[in-house]
Structure formats: C-alpha cells, structure tokens
Amino acid sequence: MKKRVAVMCVSKKSNEFYSDYLEAIFAKTIDFFHYSLDENGFENMIKADLYLVCSTSSNVFEYSMSCIPENSNVVISSITFKKNSIKKVKQIPKDSNVLMVNLSKNMAMEAISTLNRIGINDINFIPLGPIDNMKDINEYKDIKIAVTCGESRYIPDFVEEVIDLGGRVFTERVLVEMILKLDISEIMGTKPFKSYIQELAERDYGIDELSRKVSNIELKFDLVLDSIDIGVIGIDVNNRIFEFNKAAENILHMKKDDALGKTTDESLPFMPLNVYKDNLLTNDVKLITIKGVLISLRTTSIVENENFKGYFAIIERFKDEEDKQRKLRLQLLNRGHKAKYTFDDIKGNCPILKKVKQIAEKMSKSNASILIYGESGTGKELFAHAIHNASPRSDMPFVAINCAALPENLLESELFGYEEGAFTGAKKGGKAGLFEYAHTGTLFLDEIENMSQSLQVKLLRVLQEKEVIRIGSEKIINIDVKIIAASNENIKDMVEQGKFRKDLYYRINALPINIPPLRDRKDDVLLITDEIKKSIGTSFELSDEVKNIFINYEWEGNIRELRNVIEYLAYVDKPFINIEDLPATFLEEINFNEISYARNYDNTLLMEILPSEKLEKYMYVLKTLYNAKKENISLGRKNISELSKNSECHLSEQEVRTIISYLSKKQLVVVSRGRKGTELTLKGVEMVEKKVQMDNK
Ligand SMILES: Nc1ncnc2c1ncn2[C@@H]1O[C@H](COP(=O)(O)OP(=O)(O)OP(=O)(O)O)[C@@H](O)[C@H]1O
C-alpha cells in the first residue's frame, strides 16, 4: 500500500515547486497531499503516515504543529540549494556588496544563512523583500549584483547582474528522515533519489554513508536475484509487484519495468495468484501452462513480526526443474546411493553358487520384488548390488537400509520421510524418505525380518499402491521402486510362527534367491581366499595345514568371517602363514583332531593354546602326566596336587581341577572316571615332547 504524506507549506506556489521533485523521487511509494496557508489551510488535513512541515518561521511553525494529530510522524523541513545554482555565486568577487532578494526579508535572511552554511561567507549580502518604498531602494543604488531564489521580479532595475538560484530544495536529511520514518529504505537505491542528492550543494556525510550502504545492499540483493535461474516475483499485501528478477523476465517474456508497481491482476492475469491475496493459503507446488510452456509455481510468504507482508511467487520452467532433479539424483548416485558390485565380484566356482548367480542375473531384468535368503555374511548385499547393476535401473539410485539398525520410528521416517513439524525434532522443511530417493531405482531392505509388524503394514501399502505419503502429510507421492529384501532367517518359518506378515511375505518373495553357506561350498574357500587377498593387496602364502583348516572349518560367519581372518593375517605381515599365525579366537574353535601335528611348535603357539600367564603350571601338569604315561601309571587330581608340593610349582587340588578341565577342552588330556584318572592324549604327548625339545635347544 502506498504511504500518505501531507506536505504543509505557507504558499501554494512553494507547494507546487516541492511537489515536482517529491513526485519524481517518491511517486511509486508515496501519495502526496498538499496543504498551504494561502489556499486550503491545515485544519482539514487527511490522516497521513507522515506530515512534512515546510514553514519554519516561528509563528507559522507553531500553528502548523498544532494542526498535526498526536503521535504522528513529523519531519521538519530544511532547505538548501542545488550545486549548479551556487556556482555563479562562488564567482562573485570577495567582499562585494550583493542584494539577496526573496519573497520576504525573513526569507532572504534564511537564504543568506543557508549560503553561509554551505561555506559562502566572504560576500556582504543585503537581505531584501518586495520593495515598499523608494527610500529603501535608493540606499542600495550602488549595488550592481543581486542574488534571488526564483523571485527576480522583485529585483530593482539598477542591478546589472542577476544570479537566480532557483527554488530551494529539501536537504538530504529531510529525505532520509522521511524514508526512515516511512520504512521505505528501498528508495535510497533508486536512480531519482541518488541523482537528487548528487545535485545538492551541501551533503551530510553520515546520511551519505547510510544511503550508500543501503543502496549497496539493494544493489547486491538485485545482483543475487538476477544471477539465479529461478524466477522470483515479490508481491505485497495489495497484490502489487515490488520485485521481478531477470529469470522471471525470461520465463514470462515480460520486462521488469512493465511489471513493477502494477498489481498482479493488471500485469500477470494469467497466473493463479489471487488465492494468496490476503494470506498465504498454501505453499504447494502448482503446475501451470503459460504460452504452451509448463511452469511450476510455488509461493513463500513474507512475514514480519508475525504480520503477513506479501509473498514471493517462485517460478521455474518445469523442464529445467526436472533436469535439476535428475542432476541431483546423479549426484546422490555418486554419494553412496550407488550400487558398487556386479556379478563379477561374486566369486566362486562351485556349481551351486554358479546356478544361484545365473538365476539372480535373470531376475535382475524383472521389476518384481526379490527376497534373498542366506546366513550372515554369505553375500546377500553383494547380490543386491549386482542385481541392481544388471537391471535396466542401473543408472538410477540404489538405496540400501538395514532394517535392524534403526528403532521403529526412525526407520519409518527414513523410509517414508516427513513433513516439517510432523513431530518434535522434525527437520525444518521436512525430509524426503528413502522411497523418494530410490524413485526409478532400487531400494534394498536388508535384514527385513527385523521390521516391526506395524511398519510391515505400511510397507505393504506402499508396495501395493506404488505411492508414499510422508509422515504428517496428506500429499501422495507416486514412486516407482524395485524392492530387494534380504533376510538371515527363514521368513516362511517366521510367517508360520506369526512373526512376519503373510501378505508382505508373498509380495516381497515374488522372486526368491537362496545363497548357500560357505561350508557347503568348500571348493570355493581357497579361491575366495585368493580373491580377498588380491582385493586387500596382500600376498602371503598359506601352509598346507592352514589350507586344510580353512577348507574344513565351519565358517559360521561365512565369507565375512573368512575375510576377517585374511585381514588379520595381512596385519600379521608374514610371507608364509602357519597355524600359529592364525588368530587365537579362531584357534580356539579349531578341532585339533583334524589337524596334523607333525610340525614344530614354538612358544608363541604354546601360549596361544595355553594361558600364557600360567604356562609353567600347565606345563607342570602336562609333564607329570607325560611321565606317568611313560611309566604306565594313572594319576588323579589329588595325586598331581600332592606331587607338586615336592616341586617348585605348588598346585592346590582346585587349581589342578581347573587346569585339567582346560587341557581336556583342548583335547590334550582325557579324564576318565574311576581308577584310570587323567591321561595324556597323543596330541598332549606330542606337545610335551616338542616343548622339551625346544627347551633343550
Ligand atoms: N562370493 C563372494 N565373493 C567375494 N566376496 C564375497 C562374496 N560373498 C560375500 N563376499 C564378501 O563378504 C562380506 C559379506 O558380504 P555381504 O555383506 O554381502 O553379506 P550379507 O549376507 O549381506 O551379510 P549380513 O547378512 O551379515 O548383512 C563382504 O565383504 C563381501 O564383499
């Protein structure tokens, strides 16, 4: 809405004069109402946003102030001259006598003091109003120069040179005060304002600086707005356009100057903006067609101190927007939403795996959901990546989430996204869910068996309807996503136990894949070992025994466990790996009966098999049993404890019990009930002999 300013002058004439340049500067933002004492008086003024008092002589001033409603914005004018007009005054020789002629003697004195303020102090000015008698005029007969402010008609005939300063103009202070009080600082960046203050004979540095700053900000803001390729149209509460950037010009084929200051009805009748007239009802995106071009339109309100001040209409060619979305998707692809592996990365020659790979490769061409079953570490994720990369969706996002990794509510918001304010802590602007990110690509739901029943219902809905609704929103978002789910557990069993929804099971199990565990692919163990070695850049060799152990080991953690062991061995940093180089935890699992002991022990291995801090005590028990075996006598716990008392290694009966139980677990001794007592196994015998050999070396 335009501001209303009452201009209060003594004469109609000066009011007309001021009105010209006030209009030139403020026409777009201010409606001026002119009042003068010699015409309409000040008594019946409109209710204005600001009163500009132009009569400063004391009696008129007091009367003017008494006519202004209380608590109004008031600016008291001050007057100066234009730079150009005082040039000639400056050329007048020093100490000359010069007449200053104006409407009244008072006004002539005011003009003189203004010139003094500007720095013209070396001329003897004589103030003169309209001449009422010849006596006065004769006094000044010798004066050849007169200066006036547009009142040359009062200059006596004997004056030879007349310098007309023209009408006086408001100082910069007056204009800036008006601007600040009316909160229209954007004016300071406009051309008419800038050229006006440039022309003034006197400048106030502070105001100058302020206006420079403001105009700089304006300028920068304009530059920013013009540098973006999204059309921005600023619209105030009266539906008047106050901003129209370059992109808006390009998109709408319309010039900024034809839009600024006009209402949207006048200049943009083809845009459905009327709904926003009083308040911003919605900020949904609308698709509109303008001259055959599809344009997306959204709005964002301008709110200041909780008051609606208008809104920005943001427009973009729909095609540009789509292109940007595509580019963003591609960036996401490069930032994790990308499938890394192909079927070539799934190593293995055994027929059972080859068959699974073949089936999976065929399945990748279909859009139906795939359920991969396999024990932990068998390569389910690897398969999911490979399937996506072999599918027609390979250029689109591959988004993976582990359903066991997040609590239910977080998983829900991750999957479906949420609207701003949907719940405490919901991010400003809301958040897109993984379904949206995976649009036209693949969503991999790992460990789906961990998904809660209520989320299973929601997931089923999304898969059936092919649409998601963000939490806290009502808007339906269409999605086209291929689902690959993986499970460590047999979901069919879970369905039977009522732990997994049958309907969801049938939906995701359209194409099932069963990955065999590593223990069923013994032929692949060494091949995969070599592949992993290559992939982590290590080149150690395994001893035959270790190879044997690897082939026969149960590998409960499957290929992940194999990988972990190989990474450990790479860290051991030896060119040749023996049993004793294997990790202790791994050794504990090994069934020693399957291992040939025709090899050298060293202390490291002994310490790995026997608790190192009590090695001496363990060796004492082993050696005692070794001697007993040689002499074919049987020993029980009690005997061993008693014998120890005659040695340096004192063992209580309880200690002997603990040691024997441990050695028995390691298959170094067997414990029989009754008279046979505890006996060394063959392995136990071998171990003691090797240790004795080592000690003797
Ligand atoms: N056939 C294979 N060839 C080479 N490396 C493999 C093979 N299968 C699995 N791996 C590797 O084994 C590790 C585990 O694989 P992956 O994460 O795919 O298993 P998973 O079945 O998804 O496991 P979990 O159920 O525990 O999530 C990964 O480092 C993977 O690269």
Automatic annotation (TrEMBL):
<dbReference type="Pfam" id="PF00989">
    <property type="entry name" value="PAS"/>
</dbReference>
<dbReference type="InterPro" id="IPR013767">
    <property type="entry name" value="PAS_fold"/>
</dbReference>
<protein>
    <submittedName>
        <fullName>Transcriptional regulator containing PAS, AAA-type ATPase, and DNA-binding Fis domains</fullName>
    </submittedName>
</protein>
<dbReference type="InterPro" id="IPR058031">
    <property type="entry name" value="AAA_lid_NorR"/>
</dbReference>
<keyword id="KW-0067">ATP-binding</keyword>
<dbReference type="GO" id="GO:0006355">
    <property type="term" value="P:regulation of DNA-templated transcription"/>
</dbReference>
<feature type="domain" description="PAS">
    <location>
        <begin position="217"/>
        <end position="263"/>
    </location>
</feature>
<dbReference type="InterPro" id="IPR002078">
    <property type="entry name" value="Sigma_54_int"/>
</dbReference>
<dbReference type="Pfam" id="PF25601">
    <property type="entry name" value="AAA_lid_14"/>
</dbReference>
<dbReference type="InterPro" id="IPR035965">
    <property type="entry name" value="PAS-like_dom_sf"/>
</dbReference>
<keyword id="KW-0238">DNA-binding</keyword>
<feature type="domain" description="Sigma-54 factor interaction">
    <location>
        <begin position="346"/>
        <end position="571"/>
    </location>
</feature>
<dbReference type="InterPro" id="IPR025662">
    <property type="entry name" value="Sigma_54_int_dom_ATP-bd_1"/>
</dbReference>
<dbReference type="Pfam" id="PF00158">
    <property type="entry name" value="Sigma54_activat"/>
</dbReference>
<dbReference type="GO" id="GO:0003677">
    <property type="term" value="F:DNA binding"/>
</dbReference>
<dbReference type="InterPro" id="IPR025943">
    <property type="entry name" value="Sigma_54_int_dom_ATP-bd_2"/>
</dbReference>
<dbReference type="InterPro" id="IPR003593">
    <property type="entry name" value="AAA+_ATPase"/>
</dbReference>
<dbReference type="InterPro" id="IPR000014">
    <property type="entry name" value="PAS"/>
</dbReference>
<keyword id="KW-0547">Nucleotide-binding</keyword>
<dbReference type="InterPro" id="IPR036388">
    <property type="entry name" value="WH-like_DNA-bd_sf"/>
</dbReference>
<dbReference type="InterPro" id="IPR027417">
    <property type="entry name" value="P-loop_NTPase"/>
</dbReference>
<dbReference type="GO" id="GO:0005524">
    <property type="term" value="F:ATP binding"/>
</dbReference>
